[in-house]
Design brief:
Elements: H1 5-46, H2 68-72, E1 73-80, E2 83-90, H3 95-100, H4 113-129, H5 132-139, H6 146-150
Antiparallel strand pairs: 1-2
């Protein structure tokens, strides 16, 4: 298939529309699921801890994480040229020891980021797969003849 003149302009326009559609769909999905992840992390962090301290451990750890720590958990969504990233984190110095424990002091781990990721990841993956162009590309057979299908042509 050769593309000339008006076909080339139409192809450029169609590809520009597809790129915009993918970028907007991806941005909306990343933004929404970053907010869901933040909510899930805060929910996990706010649950009471009932785990017993192991023999010999000197520090049991918090029963409930509240106040400034939970408030320090926040989200950030960055939109760059052609890329959107989202993240959830905390700048609080307690975040890492709470998530992973502390062998030096014997403090137990109280994971809240990990369980939240486990909860959100499958739904985020499915939502990204449903972004219009990704879903269309998967259902229409992928790359072979993709450009021809943009114009509704058969046999490419």
């Amino acid at each position: 298939m050769s593309v000339q003149g008006d076909d080339l302009a139409a192809l450029q326009l169609a590809l520009a529309r597809l790129v915009a559609e993918v970028q907007e769909g991806s941005a909306q999905t990343v933004t929404a699921y970053t907010a869901m992840l933040e909510t899930s992390v805060k929910r996990h962090a706010s649950q009471p801890r009932t785990r017993l301290r192991p023999r010999g451990a000197s520090i049991e750890g918090p029963r409930l994480l509240t106040g400034s720590y939970v408030a320090s958990i926040n989200r950030n969504v960055d939109r760059g040229v052609g890329i959107v990233t989202g993240g959830v984190g905390s700048a609080d110095v307690r975040a890492m020891p709470l998530e992973f424990g502390n062998r030096t002091t014997g403090a137990l781990d109280y994971p809240h980021f990990g369980p939240a990721m486990d909860e959100i990841e499958p739904r985020f993956t499915a939502a990204m797969a449903a972004v219009p162009i990704v879903a269309a590309h998967k259902t229409r057979g992928g790359g072979r003849g993709f450009i021809a299908r943009l114009f509704g042509r058969r046999g490419a």
